[in-house]
Hints:
By secondary structure, the chain is α/β, with parallel strands linked by helices. The chain has two domains: 1-131 and 273-312, Isopropylmalate Dehydrogenase (3-Layer(aba) Sandwich), CATH 3.40.718; 133-272, Isopropylmalate Dehydrogenase (3-Layer(aba) Sandwich). The protein is built from eleven helices and eleven strands. Strand 1 (5-9), helix 1 and strand 2 form a beta-alpha-beta unit. It starts with a strand and ends with a helix. Its EC number is 1.1.1.262.
Amino acid sequence: xxxxxxxxxxxxxxxxxxxxxxxxxxxxxxxxxxxxxxxxxxxxxxxxxxxxxxxxxxxxxxxxxxxxxxxxxxxxxxxxxxxxxxxxxxxxxxxxxxxxxxxxxxxxxxxxxxxxxxxxxxxxxxxxxxxxxxxxxxxxxxxxxxxxxxxxxxxxxxxxxxxxxxxxxxxxxxxxxxxxxxxxxxxxxxxxxxxxxxxxxxxxxxxxxxxxxxxxxxxxxxxxxxxxxxxxxxxxxxxxxxxxxxxxxxxxxxxxxxxxxxxxxxxxxxxxxxxxxxxxxxxxxxxxxxxxxxxxxxxxxxxxxxxxxxxxx
Length: 313
């Protein structure tokens, strides 16, 4: 049996991406053939410093680093380089050279300093692949969440919500969880406002005008879905036992409970792309970069999920 090729962009060279990549690779060699997109010298230095083996897998370096990397420092060169790693991984997937890509953590400030016109991976992936509409999903054994809106300020969230955007999120959540787990998928949808609007008492009627019609349409399509539920009670243990995936209206509504329950194990998945993309669910952790303190569990889980989705269309 031929193992699938998976491209792994190592993330910002000055962060924990190189370490978690090095630690994860030996644990996934039985399920895939990794291709690391990053800087060989940085990987060699981190491996030597932490007493880790440099894996005998292909290492592809698109360039971008013109000076030695200082761990933990936000640097324009590192931003430029990490952006190039993601571009290389995406292009390999679009060309059909790999079954999926796994992205390490980037430093958004470094991207901005380098003139990268995207606030993060999700927006870059959408533009580079030509995807019409994408959603961010964070998933772990204990909890999974799909976000209707992502990297925007709270004041912008209500105007970005529509029946179609909520309905599309429900559909994508349902379809993806079926691919991951199979069987019936139960979707729980959160309201936007406290107490899910309290019948119009809070907010501008978003629950009645937007969220509920989307839920009703999803139900007519045969999706097992409930809501809108008050966000402050939607994530109780009892509700989680009856839910396979949550649809959340904004970034922190989903990520606060998810990272509280599954910080080391959750995986970021971009839904709606023509390629498979997973990612660690954490940042660059500059304060512990290259020190040997970083957990690589999220990277391992991201690679495993990329293999599963890449071999199970």
